[in-house]
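Study this one:
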Amino acid sequence: MAQRFGGKFSPDGKSETPADVPNAYTGKKRTRVGGRVNLLFFAPFPLAIRAFWSEPVGLALNLTAFGLLILAAWLTREGMLAHEAYDARRVAKRPAIPRKIFASILTGWGLGLAGFSGLDTLLTPIIFATVGTALHMFAFGIDPLTNKGMEDVDTFQQDRVARAVGDAEKHVVAMNDAIKRLGDRALERRVDRFSETARKMFRTIEDDPRDLTAARKYLSVYLKGARDATIKFSDLYPRKRDGEIRTEYETLLTDLEDNFAAKTEKMLLDDRSDMDIEIKVLRDRLQREGLKTD
């Protein structure tokens, strides 16, 4: 179905969204998981081709090397994604599995087996394995090995927040998946805008786990209701293109977005109040000690 695209540079000169509303790319950064990582999945295929032109031992070695390199490529991609998620948060745990380090080791093993195939000396495969491991670590780095911003954080509370945010993120992803079935770009952008508002609340709670109790209803009840409403809307709207139904759904998204934004702002104000109290207490103590605080 053809769609009309608008914007300030279109002939009518009108924009579909107000100027003060951030677009879907506001605050986002370009991912580092791109061509370099995808190339790792194609590089081992010559080994698979060479395997079927070798004797049985060479066949086994080449296919094993191919499997190790494909596994290393997958671990590299997952490690890069985990590293980006770690960098995006001010408070984060180190990845439970050092995927990029394991990928470097598997790359060395795979290249070592490939170099050993058809040779009687061990020097060549050892060189391949050593150089391959070193080059992989140099190209993609290693995984974060320490927690970030968790010096004074209660780990029990942080685990509770991680579970709650993880469940809430599933609701948001389900909303986006459901609305994409309609193929309506305007609705996709509208749901994506609400998703960014909800994720801003997620990041605020992760930074201060004490906010979880006050926001639990938003993470569970409200988001689950929004998910269910989106799924029902995406099932009903294609059968009956009723403008009233669409208006009601967009109004629901607006109400949810306003309430999520207001709650997030309130949590930030509470955090500011806590900081002001700490500053005041410290200044009063300095004054009692006879120190100048101006």
